[in-house]
Specification:
The complex is a heterodimer of chains A (120) and B (320).
Chain A: H1 3-7, H2 9-26, H3 39-53, H4 62-74, H5 79-95, H6 100-111, H7 114-117
Chain B: E1 2-6, E2 9-13, H1 18-24, E3 42-47, H2 60-64, E4 67-69, E5 79-82, E6 91-100, E7 105-112, E8 123-127, E9 133-137, E10 148-153, H3 160-167, E11 173-176, E12 193-198, H4 202-214, E13 221-227, H5 236-245, E14 249-255, H6 263-272, E15 282-287, H7 289-302, E16 309-313
Parallel strand pairs in B: 1-5, 12-13, 12-15, 13-14, 15-16
Antiparallel strand pairs in B: 1-2, 3-4, 3-5, 6-7, 6-11, 7-10, 8-9, 8-11
Helix pairs in contact in B: 6-7
The chains are: A mainly alpha (120), B alpha/beta (320).
């Protein structure tokens, strides 16, 4: 059974997006990257990202990740910001009472996108 | 094999997704994940029925407005589809009444020539000429009103609004688009609901509020109407009457001129101040883009779920 179905599939990811996105918007280290962005579109993208991190269905390639974040890299997006997002993923799953070994799985998948997101 | 019509051209759709079929035939459609997640390939079906799977993950308001995801659509039926900002089937309506309701808003009543279907809260384009049009929200309730009511904010040096306010006479025809937009009130809703409008943003809110009350929804409704100053209030008698008729409705006005700065923010804080148990509420925002974006963010941070937030930003025309 994948982590995605174990945490409850699509409905659970929607709940996770609410919690995760709220944390991101309140975090002064990273919220400038989200200023002026349409909230509905942003939430849809975060859902796609979290679905991927939870091992759910997705077709994102490294190239998509690179293209999608290139404008943020120009704004100064770096490892410290990626770390902050990783922190929020972990905290979100903790709040949803996901067991630690599954949180570690999700974190590993999210971590694997680091170089593409940061354009390295 | 099904036939899909898009921008007046016909395409054959085989085993692949509608998105892939169109892309293979050289049509440019925005897309990204091809997994039904990013929603970049969201389109609208005008004729025919898309499979349920093509709407999975879309919020209920978009499903009701017949939106779907092209990458998840494997058509079983011939379809006519459109992009979300694309062309529409226009029709004509007759202007049957025109009333100035305050110093800057004119109320128009239009009678469509043929059956005109729309959802409470949607908007239409009104055409002054083929290329000159503006969007206006519908203030009537599709369940109970025969005609289309619009509240036109007259822009002093604008093009279309002064023409509507001053030049179009009773009995004359106006060209209008189909109804568009996903800030709508559904046929079924049990959530307590907060409606927040600034100035003529009251138009779609009034339509949605009438739908909610007249279809018998019994939960709590709160309306907050922010106005530039006292002279910009309108529909006061109608709204007061509704609040007497329906005890689950409360109405509050907010006068921007009574605060010195951060007017939009002050209005939002006032409107959200008594929102306890935010996770239960639906919240609608209609009006100035600053008010809408600030309000959405604040209510989300306060605990309202993304899926319960609906908005219509009245973006001023750039071609004035």
């Amino acid at each position: 059974m994948s982590l995605y179905s174990e945490i409850g599939g699509d409905a659970a990811v929607s709940v996770a997006v609410d919690i995760f996105y709220r944390k991101v918007l309140l975090d002064d280290r990273i919220n400038r990257f989200f200023e002026g962005v349409d909230m509905d579109k942003q939430a849809a993208k975060q859902k796609a990202f979290l679905t991927m991190a939870f091992g759910g269905p997705h077709n994102y390639t490294g190239e998509d990740m690179r293209r999608g974040h290139a404008h943020l890299v120009k704004m100064g997006l770096n490892d410290s910001h990626f770390d902050a997002v990783m922190e929020h993923i972990g905290a979100t799953l903790k709040e949803l009472n996901v067991p630690d070994h599954l949180i570690a799985q999700a974190a590993a998948i999210a971590e694997s996108t680091r170089n593409d997101v940061l354009g390295k | 094999m099904t036939t899909v019509t898009y921008q007046n051209k016909q395409y054959q759709c085989g085993n692949g997704s509608l998105l892939d079929s169109l892309l293979e035939q050289g049509v440019s459609i925005p897309f990204s994940c091809k997994s039904g997640l990013c929603q970049a390939c969201e389109m609208k079906v005008l004729e025919g029925v898309v499979p349920t799977k093509a709407q999975v993950g879309l919020p209920e308001n978009k499903i009701q407005a017949k939106h779907f995801l092209a990458c998840q659509c494997f058509p079983e039926d011939n379809l006519v589809i459109a992009s979300l900002d694309g062309e529409t089937q226009n029709s004509r309506a007759t202007l049957i009444d025109k009333v100035r309701v305050n110093r800057s808003i004119v109320k128009l009543i239009l009678r469509p020539e043929k059956t005109f279907s729309y959802l409470a809260g949607q908007y239409i384009r009104l055409y002054q000429s083929k290329n000159e049009f503006r969007c206006y929200s519908i203030a009537s309730n599709p369940d109970s009103d025969r005609d289309i009511e619009l509240h036109i904010q007259v822009i002093a040096n604008g093009k279309v609004s002064p023409w509507l306010a001053n030049d179009v006479g009773i009995g004359e025809h106006i060209e209008l688009s189909e109804a568009m937009g996903t800030c709508i009130y559904p046929d079924k809703n049990t959530h307590p609901t907060l409606f927040i409008a600034s100035n003529s943003g009251l138009a779609p809110i009034y339509g949605m509020l009438k739908k909610a009350l007249f279809q018998g929804d019994k939960q709590e409704f709160r309306l907050y109407h922010g106005v530039t100053d006292e002279r910009d209030k309108y529909l006061v008698d109608e709204l007061t009457h509704l609040s007497h008729q329906f005890e689950n409705l409360s109405i509050n006005w907010f006068d921007y001129s009574l605060v010195t700065d951060n007017k939009q923010q002050s209005f939002i804080h006032f409107a959200l101040s008594e929102l306890t148990a935010p996770q239960d509420w639906k919240v609608y925002f209609c009006g100035s883009p600053d008010m809408v974006s600030y309000g959405k963010k604040q209510s989300f941070l306060k605990g309202v779920s993304m899926k319960n937030l609906f908005s219509d930003s009245f973006i001023p025309s750039k071609t004035n």
